[in-house]
């Protein structure tokens, strides 16, 4: 985060985190509160480390981090993760077509396990198939590595498809409440209108609004090309998680706080991710690895007939009018 970005963030937060001086002692300044919180999120250090560095009580530091994280989310939520309008969706689709060569794509979706220390009295709710405790971060991003939507706090035992179908975004998507543009043709030779879609992996059910790769190993050339082209679009969510985890190294270790604060920390980091990404860019090396995050297990959902037919339209387009010069060498 640049100095100018820090100053702007401080100005946004100052009215919310400024305390009141008393006759006993002056309050902790908002600058120091923000310093402590960003160091905690950015370095992954523990409360004890901050206790010795800033000479503040551990309970005081815990309250500072809880307060500042809450107000960062409140202030940045509508600024950095707004509800897209029709014009925003069209711009996202245009950028995906330009950068990933995938037309009518309005996002890439995936979920990751965030490691936590076992919460009290949680039983096996947060225990996942990788044999550690976690909560799940489900995210949808654009081609600029910024999150459009996040769902935080699902138990580690859940799978991607269950979390996604239970989310408010999915309900709005199915009810056409997201101002997504009307379907339009992707080919000049095929006049069939194709809906705008979100790309995901095998964990998500194939519908007319969600595109996933063809399953199986003995695939035809057309299906292999479709899977390759879909992976070019879907990699943006993997890179987004990589930038998030490398920038905010709290994700490099198990988070040892209460579950409600875990969710607040994750939401805060996602909002700060978009904030810093918009103002200061990113390092290319951060997109190459995702330290601290683990894949969420695949569920099983049948493809709808309508969704499968639209997937075939995309597959035909990628082998005819929309083919790339290097795609054949990439699947061999």
UniProtKB/TrEMBL annotation:
Cofactor needs: a divalent metal cation
PANTHER family linked? NUCLEASE HARBI1-LIKE PROTEIN, PTHR22930
Q: What is this protein called?
A: DDE Tnp4 domain-containing protein
Question: Which keywords does this Swiss-Prot/TrEMBL entry list?
Answer: Hydrolase, Metal-binding, Nuclease, Nucleus
Task: Indicate the principal place this protein occupies in or around the cell.
Answer: nucleus
- List cellular component terms (GO): nucleus
**Where in the cell is the protein located?**
Nucleus
Every DDE Tnp4 domain range? 109-274
Q: Look up the domain of life of the source.
A: Eukaryota
Give the organism the record lists: Parnassius mnemosyne (clouded apollo)
Similarity field: Belongs to the HARBI1 family.
Question: Does the record bear Metal-binding in its keywords?
Answer: yes
GO MF = hydrolase activity; metal ion binding; nuclease activity
């Amino acid at each position: 985060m640049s100095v100018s970005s820090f100053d702007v963030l401080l100005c946004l937060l100052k009215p919310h985190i400024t305390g009141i001086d008393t006759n006993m002692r002056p309050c902790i300044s908002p600058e120091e509160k923000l310093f402590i919180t960003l160091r905690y999120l950015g370095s992954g250090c523990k409360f004890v480390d901050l206790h010795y560095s800033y000479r503040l009580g551990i309970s005081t530091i815990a309250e500072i981090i809880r307060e500042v994280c809450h107000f960062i989310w409140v202030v940045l939520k509508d600024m950095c993760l707004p509800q897209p309008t029709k014009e925003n969706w069209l711009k996202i689709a245009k950028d995906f077509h330009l950068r990933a060569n995938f037309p009518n794509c309005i996002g890439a979706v995936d979920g990751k396990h965030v490691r936590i220390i076992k919460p009290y009295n949680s039983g096996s709710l947060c225990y996942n198939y990788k044999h550690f405790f976690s909560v799940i971060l489900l995210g949808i991003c654009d081609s600029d590595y910024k999150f459009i939507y996040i769902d935080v706090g699902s138990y580690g035992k859940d799978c991607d498809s269950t979390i996604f179908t239970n989310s408010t975004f999915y309900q709005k998507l199915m009810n056409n409440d997201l101002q997504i543009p009307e379907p339009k043709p992707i080919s000049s030779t095929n006049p069939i209108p194709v809906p705008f879609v979100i790309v995901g992996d095998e964990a998500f059910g194939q519908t007319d609004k969600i595109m996933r790769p063809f399953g199986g190993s003995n695939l035809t050339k057309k299906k292999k090309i479709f899977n390759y082209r879909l992976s070019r679009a879907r990699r943006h969510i993997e890179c987004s998680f990589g930038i998030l985890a490398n920038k905010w190294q709290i994700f490099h270790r198990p988070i040892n706080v209460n579950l409600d604060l875990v969710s607040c920390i994750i939401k805060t980091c996602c909002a700060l991710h978009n904030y810093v990404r918009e103002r200061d860019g990113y390092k290319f090396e951060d997109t190459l690895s995702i330290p601290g995050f683990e894949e969420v297990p695949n569920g099983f959902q049948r493809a709808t007939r309508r969704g499968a037919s639209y997937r075939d339209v995309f597959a035909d387009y990628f082998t005819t009018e929309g083919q790339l010069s290097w795609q054949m060498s990439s699947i061999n």
